[in-house]
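Hi support team,

I'm filing this because I wasn't sure whether my run with beta-D-galactopyranose finished correctly. The job status page said complete, but I'd like someone to confirm that the output block is well-formed before I use it downstream. Pasting the exact inputs I used:
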Amino acid sequence: MKIGVDYYPEQWDSSLWKADADLMAKTGVKLVRIGEFAWSRLEPKDGEFCFEWLDEVIKTFSRHAMGIVLCVPTSCPPLWLYETYPDIIRVDADGKKLQTGIRAHRCINAPMFNYFAKRIAEQLAQRYANDPAIAAWQIDNEIDAYPCTCEACQGQFRDWLTEKYDTLENINSAFGNSVWSGNYSDISQIKPPNSYPRAWQNPALCLEYSRFSSDSAIRFVKDIALVIKKVNPKAKVTSNLCFCDNMPDIYGISGELDFVSYDNYPPLKRDDKADEKLSAAFCLDFIRGAKQKNFWIMEQLSGPTGSWAPMSPAPRPGQIKGYAMQAMAHGADTVMFFRWRTAVSGAEMFWHGLIDHSNVPGRRFAEFAELCKLAPKLSVIETTELVSEIAVLYSSDNERAFDIQPQTEGFDYMKQLEAFHAAFTGYGANVDIVSPRTDLSKYKAVVAPAMFVYDKASAENIYRYVIKGGTLILTARSGVKDPVNNCIMETLPTVYREVIGAVVKEYDPIGIEEQTITDFAGNKYKCSRWCDILELGTARAYAEYADGFYKGSAAVTMNRYCSGVAYYIGTVCGSDFYRKFASNIMKQTGIPRLKDLPEGVEVTTRTNGLDDYIFFFNNSENEASITLPKEMPSIIDGSEKSDLKLGPFDMEIVRK
Ligand code: GAL
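And here is everything the job wrote out:
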């Protein structure tokens, strides 16, 4: 396992570089990421490149055998570039140009931006791509699929639509433009969604525009990767992904990268608001699923967060080290911390690094140093991966379509994925989060929450899986939309009716109101958000509604289909239901369950095919005890263990 840091040489006096490098080397840092915001220092004037300082930085760190992650600084073009080519700036939904002076405000479709972005990438590649000190390249920074409305984007969107639909007539018909007299009579009338509330706009246009914006980000990453690879085809290229409002399609963008990297800031605040965030375990599994391979953390939590919001509390003792190890437990092989030292200037001066403004290493740094010391002992894990028997399917089309048309108050697509993830991982099982188009045959159970937007390849893949003996769990709001985001004129869940052996007779979008369901064993659970009132065909009822006018109708069904089984959950429940449901599914499909794990303890397993390494992470502020079924050697201290005592945020790793 390698530990690294994010470093901003351009923000510090050069007299600090050597002392910083010395301390890093002494502490055990193996990788340093530099340069993602340094364009104005690398090219202070048009065509005037200034790389000597970067040579010096690279030399300073590589002298200690630290690898460099060099970034292509396209997220922060210099001001002279904006001044010369004002058209490279993003335009918002109101048609207003963003202001310069912040970051990531360039439009990735603007021709002049692309020209200069490729030029700086080429210059960097020519100088460094064959330098053995360069371990990897990061393209841009947290690239998003911002729905820019500049002229270039509008023109390219029209081309994108023409390529897809061929004629204006086809576009009109696909978009259902007869509604509200929306027919285009000329291609120039096609415009991006505007700043009116989404509810007023054509959902087909909105979905297509977000797909176009995503394709644009993917195209940009691909172009820059090509520039680097032209100089060194063996260069390893990544881009640091994050959960943001306009995330490009994760499977599409990862396809352009040699490995996936992720910015990992687990929630520090344990209050209601933090509950709105996705759990770190979920996010890490989501990122691993992008390429179904191990990944890197490019930015890892180092201190109190802030700047974009009021500051969070300081990470509690154990959290700096524990959260980094939690990432490893989910497939990270390298963890780089953001950032070495807290900035003393600029907008982010209160987003803390490992070392505070004082430049005096403190408690958090000491914990980081402990992790660096431990890392070499974990090298045995580097050749291991997580193998999962359970998959939860994610599709960016579904996520975007629900964003465009939220279904009911509180109905949240990602939270549904997370609820299933939490239920299965709660029994110590590995869970993959993958594309509905991926080969599902290796999974014993596949959860397909709210397959809202129809995609032929995904639907066929799901059928193939069940036909061959798989266990599928499908949920409400599946099969609702055609691929362009129009409703399908068929009984719900349309294409999935046959596999679930039931139909939706009517639905009740109850939002935050509550209903009750009773399962076949008589257990009662609260449900809300949405109630599909199901009529059984070949399926049997697993649970029925207990209240109101559809009392006694099926809410959850089970159907044998060919060699497989398909469950349909027509409502949204609380964790009590999902936990019991997951337990039943695991029992039936022969997936081992660890029962009675203490609250907050997360268990994952990494394997190399011969040896299994079990990670026990205490993601809580309380002590936790676990009794192992037999003595197992600890990778951390080498001793044989049969009883684990984990302090807050402690990790133990044993070989099975
Ligand atoms: C990330 C970003 C970093 C820094 C960090 C803390 O999203 O990539 O550059 O801004 O957050 O805010």
